[in-house]
Amino acid sequence: MKYKIDTSIHFFQYIIGIIIVIATSLLLLFNIYRKDTNGIIASSIFLIYGVFLHKKVFYKPKMISFDDDFLYSELLTEPIKLKNIISIEKGKIIYQLNGENQKLKLPNFYFLNKNYKRLKIIVKNEITTG
Predict the structure, then answer these.
(1) Under a CB-based contact definition with an 8 Å cutoff, are residues 47 and 25 in contact?
(2) Full-model pTM
């Protein structure tokens, strides 16, 4: 049976980030139209900050699911064997691929998902028994 780590809260956050960037862009255009120097400076700074947040924090979430043997994601070309996962920490899954440690970023609010807790237990059991 496949379990999915839910991304709906993260996707909502992503949509809010897009709305903030669009609204700030419109505010910047309005301030340029009004020729308000202070408004142009303030909205430019806020727009740069909004774009930075959108790229680093509000990135588009990718689907992550798993079963008893493998971890699947849209970002991976092939699934990861659960026995190859080294640890799950700070929103990242660290796994070994071809002798190198790789990272897979979990969606924001992953810790609220019951399937995340199930994955963590399965990986902990794999580490202790493997």
Answers:
(1) yes
(2) 0.70
